[in-house]
Amino acid sequence: MQGSKVRISAGQRRARLGLRHRLAVKAATPEEVAASVVALHGTDPSTVFLSAGARLTSPGPEPVERAIYDERTLVRMTGMRRTVFAVPAELVPVVHWSTMAPVARRERRTLLKTFGAGGWDEARVAAAEAAVLRALAEHGEADAARLGTLVPELREQVVVAAGKPYEALVSLGSRLLPLLAMDGLLVRGRRAAGTWVSGRHLWGLAPELPLLAAPEARAELARRWLAAFGPATEADLKWWTGWTLTETRAALSAVGAVEVDLDEGPGLALPDDLEEVPEPEPWAALLPALDPTPMGWQARDWYLTPGHRAELFDRNGNIGPTVWWDGRVAGGWAQRPDGEIVWRLFADVGAEGRAAVEAEAAGLAAWLGGIRVTPRFRTPLERELSAP
Known about the structure:
This protein has 14 helices and 14 strands. By secondary structure, the protein is of the alpha+beta class. It has a domain of 116 residues: Arc Repressor Mutant, subunit A (Orthogonal Bundle). It has a four-stranded antiparallel sheet with strand order 11-12-13-14. Helix 10 crosses helix 11. The protein is globular and about 65 Å long. It comes from Nonomuraea coxensis DSM 45129. This is Winged helix DNA-binding domain-containing protein.
Protein backbone atom coordinates (compact mmCIF):
# COMPACT_ATOMS: atom_id res chain seq x y z
CA MET A 1 0.00 0.00 0.00
CA GLN A 2 2.76 2.35 -0.98
CA GLY A 3 2.32 5.52 -2.99
CA SER A 4 2.52 9.27 -2.97
CA LYS A 5 0.39 11.07 -0.44
CA VAL A 6 -2.22 12.55 -2.74
CA ARG A 7 -4.77 14.68 -0.91
CA ILE A 8 -8.44 13.98 -1.68
CA SER A 9 -10.82 16.46 -0.05
CA ALA A 10 -14.25 15.75 1.40
CA GLY A 11 -15.69 17.77 -1.50
CA GLN A 12 -13.98 15.43 -3.97
CA ARG A 13 -15.31 12.42 -2.11
CA ARG A 14 -18.83 13.83 -2.34
CA ALA A 15 -18.35 14.47 -6.07
CA ARG A 16 -17.31 10.85 -6.56
CA LEU A 17 -20.26 9.65 -4.51
CA GLY A 18 -22.73 11.59 -6.66
CA LEU A 19 -21.23 10.45 -9.96
CA ARG A 20 -20.28 6.87 -9.18
CA HIS A 21 -23.39 5.94 -7.22
CA ARG A 22 -25.56 7.16 -10.08
CA LEU A 23 -27.23 9.84 -8.01
CA ALA A 24 -26.03 12.87 -9.96
CA VAL A 25 -26.22 11.07 -13.32
CA LYS A 26 -28.93 8.42 -13.51
CA ALA A 27 -28.52 4.87 -14.82
CA ALA A 28 -30.54 3.10 -17.50
CA THR A 29 -30.83 -0.35 -15.86
CA PRO A 30 -30.98 -1.94 -12.40
CA GLU A 31 -27.85 -3.90 -13.29
CA GLU A 32 -25.93 -0.62 -13.77
CA VAL A 33 -27.29 0.63 -10.47
CA ALA A 34 -26.21 -2.47 -8.54
CA ALA A 35 -22.74 -2.46 -10.08
CA SER A 36 -22.30 1.21 -9.19
CA VAL A 37 -22.55 0.39 -5.46
CA VAL A 38 -21.20 -3.21 -5.72
CA ALA A 39 -24.56 -4.65 -4.56
CA LEU A 40 -27.96 -3.41 -3.43
CA HIS A 41 -28.87 -3.89 0.22
CA GLY A 42 -31.74 -6.39 0.40
CA THR A 43 -32.48 -7.24 4.04
CA ASP A 44 -35.62 -5.17 3.62
CA PRO A 45 -37.09 -6.29 0.26
CA SER A 46 -38.39 -2.82 -0.59
CA THR A 47 -34.89 -1.30 -0.30
CA VAL A 48 -33.74 -2.96 -3.53
CA PHE A 49 -36.59 -1.34 -5.46
CA LEU A 50 -36.34 2.06 -3.78
CA SER A 51 -32.55 2.22 -4.10
CA ALA A 52 -32.78 1.35 -7.77
CA GLY A 53 -35.64 3.79 -8.32
CA ALA A 54 -33.63 6.67 -6.86
CA ARG A 55 -30.92 6.04 -9.48
CA LEU A 56 -32.86 5.06 -12.62
CA THR A 57 -33.82 7.33 -15.49
CA SER A 58 -37.18 5.50 -15.60
CA PRO A 59 -37.89 4.29 -12.05
CA GLY A 60 -40.43 1.64 -11.19
CA PRO A 61 -40.66 -1.93 -9.89
CA GLU A 62 -40.93 -3.61 -13.30
CA PRO A 63 -37.29 -3.42 -14.43
CA VAL A 64 -36.08 -4.55 -11.01
CA GLU A 65 -38.48 -7.52 -10.93
CA ARG A 66 -37.38 -8.45 -14.44
CA ALA A 67 -33.71 -8.39 -13.41
CA ILE A 68 -34.28 -10.46 -10.25
CA TYR A 69 -37.00 -12.90 -11.32
CA ASP A 70 -36.90 -13.26 -15.12
CA GLU A 71 -33.36 -12.58 -16.30
CA ARG A 72 -31.66 -13.44 -13.00
CA THR A 73 -29.04 -10.77 -13.65
CA LEU A 74 -29.42 -9.74 -10.01
CA VAL A 75 -29.32 -12.47 -7.37
CA ARG A 76 -30.57 -12.08 -3.80
CA MET A 77 -28.04 -13.72 -1.49
CA THR A 78 -26.52 -13.42 1.95
CA GLY A 79 -23.24 -11.56 1.73
CA MET A 80 -21.20 -8.98 3.57
CA ARG A 81 -21.82 -8.79 7.34
CA ARG A 82 -24.30 -11.70 7.03
CA THR A 83 -26.66 -9.29 5.25
CA VAL A 84 -28.90 -10.01 2.27
CA PHE A 85 -27.94 -8.18 -0.92
CA ALA A 86 -29.09 -8.13 -4.54
CA VAL A 87 -25.79 -8.95 -6.23
CA PRO A 88 -24.91 -8.73 -9.95
CA ALA A 89 -24.90 -12.32 -11.20
CA GLU A 90 -21.25 -12.23 -12.26
CA LEU A 91 -20.25 -11.15 -8.75
CA VAL A 92 -22.04 -13.97 -6.90
CA PRO A 93 -18.99 -16.30 -6.76
CA VAL A 94 -16.82 -13.41 -5.53
CA VAL A 95 -19.23 -12.54 -2.71
CA HIS A 96 -19.71 -16.20 -1.80
CA TRP A 97 -16.06 -17.20 -1.56
CA SER A 98 -14.89 -13.91 -0.05
CA THR A 99 -17.46 -13.65 2.73
CA MET A 100 -19.98 -16.48 2.91
CA ALA A 101 -17.94 -19.64 3.35
CA PRO A 102 -16.67 -18.76 6.86
CA VAL A 103 -20.06 -17.34 7.86
CA ALA A 104 -21.77 -20.55 6.75
CA ARG A 105 -19.40 -22.60 8.90
CA ARG A 106 -20.23 -20.48 11.95
CA GLU A 107 -23.96 -20.68 11.24
CA ARG A 108 -23.77 -24.47 10.94
CA ARG A 109 -22.11 -24.72 14.35
CA THR A 110 -24.83 -22.46 15.79
CA LEU A 111 -27.60 -24.57 14.25
CA LEU A 112 -26.15 -27.78 15.65
CA LYS A 113 -25.84 -26.20 19.08
CA THR A 114 -29.38 -24.79 18.99
CA PHE A 115 -31.04 -28.03 17.85
CA GLY A 116 -28.63 -30.49 19.46
CA ALA A 117 -30.80 -30.94 22.55
CA GLY A 118 -33.56 -32.15 20.23
CA GLY A 119 -31.40 -34.91 18.83
CA TRP A 120 -30.12 -33.08 15.76
CA ASP A 121 -26.54 -34.13 15.09
CA GLU A 122 -24.53 -33.63 11.90
CA ALA A 123 -25.83 -36.79 10.27
CA ARG A 124 -29.46 -35.97 10.90
CA VAL A 125 -29.04 -32.38 9.65
CA ALA A 126 -27.28 -33.67 6.52
CA ALA A 127 -30.20 -36.03 5.88
CA ALA A 128 -32.68 -33.15 6.14
CA GLU A 129 -30.56 -31.06 3.76
CA ALA A 130 -30.50 -33.87 1.24
CA ALA A 131 -34.27 -34.21 1.51
CA VAL A 132 -34.72 -30.49 0.77
CA LEU A 133 -32.54 -30.71 -2.32
CA ARG A 134 -34.43 -33.79 -3.55
CA ALA A 135 -37.79 -32.08 -2.99
CA LEU A 136 -36.79 -29.00 -4.97
CA ALA A 137 -35.31 -31.11 -7.75
CA GLU A 138 -38.58 -33.05 -8.01
CA HIS A 139 -41.16 -30.32 -7.42
CA GLY A 140 -39.42 -27.11 -8.48
CA GLU A 141 -39.32 -23.84 -6.53
CA ALA A 142 -41.30 -23.76 -3.29
CA ASP A 143 -41.79 -21.45 -0.37
CA ALA A 144 -40.87 -22.39 3.19
CA ALA A 145 -44.41 -23.55 4.00
CA ARG A 146 -44.54 -25.87 1.00
CA LEU A 147 -41.10 -27.24 1.79
CA GLY A 148 -42.29 -27.92 5.34
CA THR A 149 -44.97 -30.16 3.85
CA LEU A 150 -42.54 -31.92 1.52
CA VAL A 151 -39.87 -32.29 4.21
CA PRO A 152 -41.72 -32.55 7.58
CA GLU A 153 -38.46 -32.40 9.54
CA LEU A 154 -38.25 -28.70 8.68
CA ARG A 155 -41.27 -28.05 10.91
CA GLU A 156 -39.59 -29.35 14.08
CA GLN A 157 -39.17 -26.60 16.67
CA VAL A 158 -37.00 -25.78 19.66
CA VAL A 159 -37.13 -23.02 22.26
CA VAL A 160 -34.38 -20.42 22.11
CA ALA A 161 -33.50 -17.91 24.84
CA ALA A 162 -35.61 -19.85 27.34
CA GLY A 163 -36.76 -17.74 30.27
CA LYS A 164 -35.77 -14.45 28.65
CA PRO A 165 -38.17 -11.73 27.45
CA TYR A 166 -37.37 -12.63 23.84
CA GLU A 167 -37.88 -16.39 24.30
CA ALA A 168 -39.17 -17.88 21.06
CA LEU A 169 -39.94 -21.08 19.22
CA VAL A 170 -37.88 -21.49 16.06
CA SER A 171 -38.27 -24.12 13.39
CA LEU A 172 -35.46 -26.08 11.82
CA GLY A 173 -36.50 -24.78 8.41
CA SER A 174 -36.11 -21.15 9.44
CA ARG A 175 -32.41 -21.82 10.09
CA LEU A 176 -31.63 -24.60 7.64
CA LEU A 177 -32.95 -23.03 4.43
CA PRO A 178 -30.90 -19.82 4.80
CA LEU A 179 -27.88 -21.97 5.71
CA LEU A 180 -28.26 -23.98 2.51
CA ALA A 181 -28.31 -20.68 0.62
CA MET A 182 -25.14 -19.56 2.43
CA ASP A 183 -23.55 -22.82 1.29
CA GLY A 184 -24.43 -21.92 -2.30
CA LEU A 185 -26.95 -24.75 -2.70
CA LEU A 186 -30.22 -22.75 -2.62
CA VAL A 187 -31.18 -19.43 -4.16
CA ARG A 188 -34.01 -17.05 -3.34
CA GLY A 189 -36.46 -17.13 -6.22
CA ARG A 190 -39.69 -15.40 -7.15
CA ARG A 191 -41.93 -13.61 -4.70
CA ALA A 192 -44.28 -16.10 -3.08
CA ALA A 193 -47.10 -13.65 -2.40
CA GLY A 194 -48.00 -9.99 -2.18
CA THR A 195 -46.45 -6.98 -3.88
CA TRP A 196 -42.77 -6.11 -4.34
CA VAL A 197 -42.54 -4.96 -0.70
CA SER A 198 -43.25 -8.52 0.50
CA GLY A 199 -40.45 -10.58 1.99
CA ARG A 200 -42.02 -13.95 1.16
CA HIS A 201 -40.20 -15.74 -1.61
CA LEU A 202 -39.68 -19.15 -3.16
CA TRP A 203 -36.56 -21.26 -2.69
CA GLY A 204 -34.91 -22.95 -5.64
CA LEU A 205 -31.79 -24.93 -6.45
CA ALA A 206 -28.80 -22.70 -7.10
CA PRO A 207 -26.61 -23.11 -10.16
CA GLU A 208 -23.20 -24.57 -9.44
CA LEU A 209 -20.73 -21.96 -8.24
CA PRO A 210 -17.31 -21.73 -9.90
CA LEU A 211 -14.58 -22.27 -7.35
CA LEU A 212 -12.49 -19.24 -6.34
CA ALA A 213 -9.67 -19.08 -3.84
CA ALA A 214 -10.74 -16.96 -0.86
CA PRO A 215 -7.80 -14.50 -1.12
CA GLU A 216 -8.51 -13.99 -4.82
CA ALA A 217 -12.21 -13.41 -4.12
CA ARG A 218 -11.46 -10.97 -1.31
CA ALA A 219 -9.08 -9.01 -3.53
CA GLU A 220 -11.70 -8.69 -6.28
CA LEU A 221 -14.37 -7.57 -3.83
CA ALA A 222 -11.97 -5.03 -2.32
CA ARG A 223 -11.15 -3.70 -5.78
CA ARG A 224 -14.81 -3.24 -6.67
CA TRP A 225 -15.58 -1.63 -3.33
CA LEU A 226 -12.70 0.84 -3.62
CA ALA A 227 -13.75 1.70 -7.17
CA ALA A 228 -17.24 2.53 -5.92
CA PHE A 229 -16.59 3.86 -2.41
CA GLY A 230 -12.96 4.96 -2.49
CA PRO A 231 -11.09 6.75 -1.26
CA ALA A 232 -11.89 5.31 2.14
CA THR A 233 -10.21 3.80 5.14
CA GLU A 234 -9.07 0.33 6.08
CA ALA A 235 -11.65 0.43 8.89
CA ASP A 236 -14.42 1.25 6.39
CA LEU A 237 -13.66 -1.83 4.27
CA LYS A 238 -13.26 -4.09 7.30
CA TRP A 239 -16.65 -2.95 8.62
CA TRP A 240 -18.41 -3.20 5.24
CA THR A 241 -17.17 -6.71 4.49
CA GLY A 242 -17.09 -8.18 7.97
CA TRP A 243 -13.55 -9.49 7.34
CA THR A 244 -10.80 -9.75 9.91
CA LEU A 245 -8.16 -7.04 9.95
CA THR A 246 -5.63 -9.49 8.49
CA GLU A 247 -7.96 -10.40 5.62
CA THR A 248 -8.73 -6.73 4.96
CA ARG A 249 -5.09 -5.72 4.82
CA ALA A 250 -4.18 -8.64 2.56
CA ALA A 251 -6.97 -7.76 0.11
CA LEU A 252 -5.94 -4.10 0.01
CA SER A 253 -2.34 -5.08 -0.58
CA ALA A 254 -3.37 -7.45 -3.38
CA VAL A 255 -5.07 -4.64 -5.31
CA GLY A 256 -2.17 -2.27 -4.79
CA ALA A 257 -4.17 0.24 -2.76
CA VAL A 258 -2.18 3.43 -2.17
CA GLU A 259 -2.29 5.75 0.79
CA VAL A 260 -3.94 9.15 0.40
CA ASP A 261 -4.67 12.03 2.74
CA LEU A 262 -8.34 12.58 3.64
CA ASP A 263 -9.74 15.38 5.76
CA GLU A 264 -10.16 12.82 8.57
CA GLY A 265 -6.66 11.36 8.20
CA PRO A 266 -5.07 8.51 6.22
CA GLY A 267 -7.13 6.80 3.55
CA LEU A 268 -6.73 4.38 0.65
CA ALA A 269 -7.53 4.46 -3.06
CA LEU A 270 -6.87 2.36 -6.13
CA PRO A 271 -3.59 3.31 -7.81
CA ASP A 272 -5.34 4.46 -11.00
CA ASP A 273 -7.95 6.51 -9.13
CA LEU A 274 -6.01 9.47 -7.78
CA GLU A 275 -7.02 12.19 -10.25
CA GLU A 276 -9.73 14.69 -9.40
CA VAL A 277 -13.18 14.09 -10.85
CA PRO A 278 -15.40 16.89 -12.19
CA GLU A 279 -17.96 18.38 -9.84
CA PRO A 280 -21.43 17.26 -10.89
CA GLU A 281 -24.39 19.60 -11.05
CA PRO A 282 -26.15 19.85 -7.65
CA TRP A 283 -28.42 16.88 -7.13
CA ALA A 284 -31.14 15.71 -4.76
CA ALA A 285 -32.20 12.21 -3.80
CA LEU A 286 -34.58 10.45 -1.45
CA LEU A 287 -32.79 7.25 -0.46
CA PRO A 288 -34.52 4.44 1.43
CA ALA A 289 -33.66 2.86 4.74
CA LEU A 290 -30.50 0.73 4.47
CA ASP A 291 -29.56 2.23 1.11
CA PRO A 292 -26.06 1.07 0.07
CA THR A 293 -24.67 4.61 -0.18
CA PRO A 294 -25.02 5.71 3.47
CA MET A 295 -24.32 2.10 4.53
CA GLY A 296 -21.08 2.02 2.53
CA TRP A 297 -18.74 3.54 5.10
CA GLN A 298 -18.25 3.21 8.82
CA ALA A 299 -17.02 6.82 9.15
CA ARG A 300 -19.67 9.18 7.79
CA ASP A 301 -18.83 12.68 9.03
CA TRP A 302 -17.86 13.89 5.55
CA TYR A 303 -21.45 13.56 4.34
CA LEU A 304 -23.53 13.39 7.54
CA THR A 305 -23.47 15.91 10.37
CA PRO A 306 -22.83 13.83 13.54
CA GLY A 307 -25.52 15.67 15.48
CA HIS A 308 -28.26 14.11 13.36
CA ARG A 309 -27.23 10.47 13.70
CA ALA A 310 -29.59 9.76 16.59
CA GLU A 311 -32.56 10.78 14.44
CA LEU A 312 -31.56 8.74 11.40
CA PHE A 313 -30.22 5.48 12.89
CA ASP A 314 -31.75 2.81 15.07
CA ARG A 315 -29.89 1.32 18.02
CA ASN A 316 -28.27 -1.37 15.87
CA GLY A 317 -26.75 1.05 13.38
CA ASN A 318 -29.37 0.70 10.65
CA ILE A 319 -29.99 3.95 8.81
CA GLY A 320 -33.50 5.13 7.97
CA PRO A 321 -34.73 7.02 4.88
CA THR A 322 -32.53 10.01 4.05
CA VAL A 323 -32.84 13.19 2.01
CA TRP A 324 -29.68 14.17 0.12
CA TRP A 325 -28.66 17.48 -1.38
CA ASP A 326 -25.43 17.89 -3.32
CA GLY A 327 -23.52 15.05 -1.72
CA ARG A 328 -24.68 15.42 1.88
CA VAL A 329 -27.45 14.02 4.02
CA ALA A 330 -29.72 17.03 4.35
CA GLY A 331 -32.66 15.45 6.18
CA GLY A 332 -34.97 12.47 6.43
CA TRP A 333 -38.24 11.37 4.87
CA ALA A 334 -41.10 8.94 5.45
CA GLN A 335 -44.40 7.83 4.00
CA ARG A 336 -47.63 8.39 5.89
CA PRO A 337 -50.43 5.79 5.98
CA ASP A 338 -52.27 7.62 3.19
CA GLY A 339 -49.18 7.35 0.96
CA GLU A 340 -48.04 10.98 1.26
CA ILE A 341 -44.27 11.46 1.13
CA VAL A 342 -43.12 13.85 3.86
CA TRP A 343 -39.65 15.04 4.76
CA ARG A 344 -37.71 17.25 7.12
CA LEU A 345 -34.56 19.17 6.26
CA PHE A 346 -31.92 19.71 8.91
CA ALA A 347 -30.72 23.02 7.46
CA ASP A 348 -31.58 25.58 4.80
CA VAL A 349 -30.64 24.15 1.38
CA GLY A 350 -31.83 27.20 -0.52
CA ALA A 351 -34.61 27.56 -3.06
CA GLU A 352 -32.83 25.34 -5.60
CA GLY A 353 -32.30 22.57 -3.09
CA ARG A 354 -35.85 22.66 -1.78
CA ALA A 355 -37.29 22.60 -5.30
CA ALA A 356 -35.08 19.63 -6.19
CA VAL A 357 -36.16 17.70 -3.08
CA GLU A 358 -39.81 18.44 -3.85
CA ALA A 359 -39.34 17.13 -7.39
CA GLU A 360 -37.73 13.92 -6.10
CA ALA A 361 -40.56 13.40 -3.61
CA ALA A 362 -43.17 13.93 -6.31
CA GLY A 363 -41.41 11.49 -8.61
CA LEU A 364 -41.19 8.87 -5.88
CA ALA A 365 -44.87 9.23 -5.01
CA ALA A 366 -45.79 8.88 -8.68
CA TRP A 367 -44.04 5.58 -9.30
CA LEU A 368 -45.02 4.13 -5.92
CA GLY A 369 -48.64 4.53 -6.85
CA GLY A 370 -50.73 3.04 -4.06
CA ILE A 371 -47.88 1.01 -2.51
CA ARG A 372 -47.19 1.74 1.15
CA VAL A 373 -43.61 1.21 2.32
CA THR A 374 -42.70 0.83 5.98
CA PRO A 375 -39.01 0.17 6.71
CA ARG A 376 -38.26 -3.08 8.48
CA PHE A 377 -36.01 -1.21 10.91
CA ARG A 378 -37.80 1.89 12.21
CA THR A 379 -35.77 4.98 13.16
CA PRO A 380 -36.81 7.91 15.36
CA LEU A 381 -37.28 10.47 12.58
CA GLU A 382 -39.06 8.01 10.28
CA ARG A 383 -41.50 7.09 13.04
CA GLU A 384 -42.17 10.73 13.83
CA LEU A 385 -42.69 11.79 10.21
CA SER A 386 -44.88 8.82 9.29
CA ALA A 387 -47.33 9.38 12.11
CA PRO A 388 -50.77 10.37 10.75
